[in-house]
Amino acid sequence: MKKRGKKAKQSSRQARLPHLAPSIPTLETPRLVLRPLELADAPQIQILFPQWEIVRYLRNAIPWPYPTDGALQYVRDMALPAIARSEAWHWTLRLRTEPKQVIGFISLIKGKTENRGFWMSPPWQGRGLMSEACDAVTDYWFNVLKFPVLRVPKAVANAASRRISEKQGMRVVATEERDYVGGRFLSETWEITAEEWHAHRKSAVRRTRDPKRHGV
Ligand SMILES: CC(C)(COP(=O)(O)OP(=O)(O)OC[C@H]1O[C@@H](n2cnc3c(N)ncnc32)[C@H](O)[C@@H]1OP(=O)(O)O)[C@@H](O)C(=O)NCCC(=O)NCCS
Q1: Helix, strand, coil in percent for the chain, rounding step 5
Q2: What global pTM score does this model have?
């Protein structure tokens, strides 16, 4: 009898178990654990996410008012299937000191103009946590997924989000009006190439090793 190759066995197993997503690693930063999204996260997301402060500058594709099963629908019908198709990578954010509590969310998305999205629940904002998460997933985008460029649109009025892009060494490459949950706003597309990101990371390491030179 003819032996079946490893690849054939793998694909027939995947066909029988279509819910099996390609594995996404847990990522860690000094203060955070980024855990791959699971269906079981939906109830916590449903509690944290539907707040005006969070959705105002997110794309108007998000239903608003948010349905009572909005998080379940999103996780089950959109986010997990996109992970399974290797079109998106989603993580919940948790403090290392309190790993059961979801405090935010971050995504990487394949495509031309919108490759990363994130939100942080208000009590945990303003502590530099999303900056940490962004550095970890941006490393993943370039070093593991090996995409050549990362692009993110954001409302000009979204100062915290723009500041994160600025700190990461990104550049504005386009300005246009876009529709957000809070209305139609002037929006910028920020971009960074793999080469620029690697140079930015190297110079950040140099700054950390030589704090006096930069007056820290
Ligand atoms: C954007 C968001 C994720 C930032 O999360 P966060 O954990 O507070 O971010 P960080 O603390 O890592 O960094 C925010 C930076 O913006 C700065 N910032 C925050 N609010 C600001 C404001 N109103 N004006 C100028 N800078 C601001 C902070 O000082 C910090 O910069 P610094 O490190 O130089 O001090 C959070 O505000 C959020 O969830 N917003 C709603 C969802 C959203 O808009 N997502 C992005 C869509 S493009």
Answers
A1: 40, 25, 35
A2: 0.90
